Amino acid sequence: MAALLTGILSILGYLSATFLLLKDLFKAKTRRPFLIIAWIAVSLHAINIALVTDKHQGFNFSFFSTASLISLSIAILLLIAVLDKPVEKLGIVIFPLASLMLGLEIAMPEASFTPVSYSWQMSTHILTSIMAFSLLNIAALQAALLAIQDQQLRSHHPRKLIRSLPPLQAMESLLFQMIGYGLLFLSASLLTGFIFIEDLFAQHLVHKTVLSILAWIIFSCLLIGRSRYGWRGNTAIQWTLIGFILLLLAYFGSKLVLELILKKH
């Protein structure tokens, strides 16, 4: 009952924060009440996950449970970034997504649950993987917003939303900062995976490893291109989105097919 209550309150908090952001959408500055509500929402979301994990004596790495945990991580990272970066408008996408993932987890609990206990090595690998995906998810959203901003400015008729955003160069700088942090955690994730996972074939992780390496190569090339050749604009946007799509397929592709389509766990 406590887990259900915290989950519902968290969803309401996410939606309330989204409403406040939408209300201030066309303003240069966003009022801070949304931050307080958003922090309450992520805190309740974290408590919900902790209560469910404690109840089952272990975390359930099913599709929706994992998606809920990652959406929580993304929301927390966004709120931390908002403290010194003008990225709060990404919450219009991130907060509803977090509420949706939490709602789906509540609505579709696993019928059978086997608690899993991981060593510190595997826990490190899982944590760095979640951090990498969360940071690069924010980067992908930033890239999408940058693409809209660039298109609007080229048309010479930018809408109020675009005029409320930081200058294009500042937006690009934020994008590459997010990619840099995300790549750092992705590198750690790949390194710990190669060191601590004994048999990739037996654990059906080959596709995830290959796609993650391809994403790592794309993000690395993008940062090198930015540093040496001054890559920016559409090149940065396209490479960021391609890299994130590969990472999305790596993290959720097999889970989606196995758990939701083939009904295998």
Net shape: flat
Average pLDDT taken over every residue: 82
Q: What is the CA–CA distance across the termini?
A: 26 Å
Portion in beta strands: under 5%
Q: What is the fold's blueprint, element by element?
A:
Elements (H helix, E strand, L loop, with lengths): L1 H22 L9 H24 L6 H20 L8 H17 L12 H35 L5 H5 L3 H29 L9 H24 L3 H29 L4
Helix pairs in contact: 1-2, 1-4, 2-3, 3-4, 3-5, 5-7, 5-9, 7-8, 8-9
Describe this structure in words.
There is one protein chain. The chain is mainly alpha-helical and 265 residues long. Helix content is 77%, strand content 0%. The chain has nine helices and no strands. It has helices spanning 2-23, 33-56, 63-82, 91-107, 120-154, 160-164, 168-196, 206-229, 233-261.
In short:
The protein has helices spanning 2-23, 33-56, 63-82, 91-107, 120-154, 160-164, 168-196, 206-229, 233-261. It has 265 residues and is mainly alpha-helical. Helix 2 (33-56) runs antiparallel to helix 3 (63-82), helix 3 crosses helix 5 and helix 7 runs antiparallel to helix 8.
Main features:
77% helix, single chain, mainly alpha, flat, 265 residues, 9 helices
